[in-house]
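Quick one: sequence plus zinc ion SMILES, need structure tokens.
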Amino acid sequence: MSVIPAKPVLVSDETPKPAEVARPSREQALEAVRTLIAWAGDNPSRPGLIDTPKRVVDAYGEWFDGYDADAGKELSRTFEDVTGYDDMVILRDIEVESHCEHHMAPFLGKAYVAYLPGEKVVGISKLARVVEIYARRLQNQETLTNDIIDAIESHLQPRGVAVLVDAEHQCMTTRGVHHRHVSTITTRFTGAFKDDPALADRFLKLAKA
Ligand SMILES: [Zn+2]
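Reply:
Sure thing.
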């Protein structure tokens, strides 16, 4: 198990945002898959592979539909009536299905998200949706952890947020070092979770209970 504390990632102003890169046509995407099949050493025209580019492009549509979704919109509908509840709200075992930006290989695992509500609370399914939106983009696990925290911080202005992501990276298990069953854990705490080690500890115990 490797533990990497996630740090805020500063992106330079010159980095093109995904939306500023023109999307190729579907035909161009199909052609790119044919090229990769040939690069792997097979014949993209043989019967078993003839429809594969279509399936791959459709799968990309699902795996990367987070680019067309807006986490802020999911968190915009908030409630103020929490009838005096003032402890953390924690979601455990949120499925993470993502792809690393280094190899475009899947990384699969779970996310644990907690926040201490300030004035605003949000429907709990929305927190799982935020994880899904960022997971369905290309990134690394540290960035995923940061993106989830930053979205909750900026839209809910809570007293604190805690996120833990625990995932297995197939770029590590199926290639390169071929280490099976190695999981990577990233954590980040803000606000009260950062200031109060006892609260962070409670989160970690509840998350992994
Ligand atoms: Zn990778």
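The CA atoms of residues 33 and 53 lie 5 Å apart. Confidence is low (pLDDT under 50) at residues 7-13.
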